[in-house]
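Lab notes, practical 5.
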Amino acid sequence: MKTVFVTVGTTSFDELIESITSPETVQALTARGYERLVLQVGRGSLVPAADSCPHVTLEAYRFKDSIAEDIEQADLVISHAGAGSCLESLGAGKSLLVVVNDKLMNNHQLEMARQLHMDSHLLYCTCSTLSETLRAMDLSVLQPFFARTAQELCTFPR
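Output from the prediction step:
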């Protein structure tokens, strides 16, 4: 079953959970053949019910000791722009779509997502452009990510 795994890490990012479960976004996912949606919702106030998204199998949880198995089982990972979630997904060789929380002040996450996108390792968007990005995305353009040193990761061009 073709699976999308969505993670917000330890944060609260209800806007992403609302966006991914919207009828428009679910339609974009099913049009691409995705049948299963696994949501890690973190500290958010929204935990969608299993029957809230017609045409996909939906599972939602707050936290697990490790999300490695969910990442491994996913055909596509959609993540907040947290460094840990991004690097774990890329390190597992998964196609990654990062959804930047454009409501954050001094958004360093956008810098990281933009640089990794420029290096062709991931695609990124915001909640308002998620459905459109899913409809138009071409995952074949993504290049494998080879782990870099922490020093290299912390010196993105500004």
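Observations recorded by the TA: Residues 68 and 125 are 23 Å apart (CA to CA). The longest strand covers residues 95-100.
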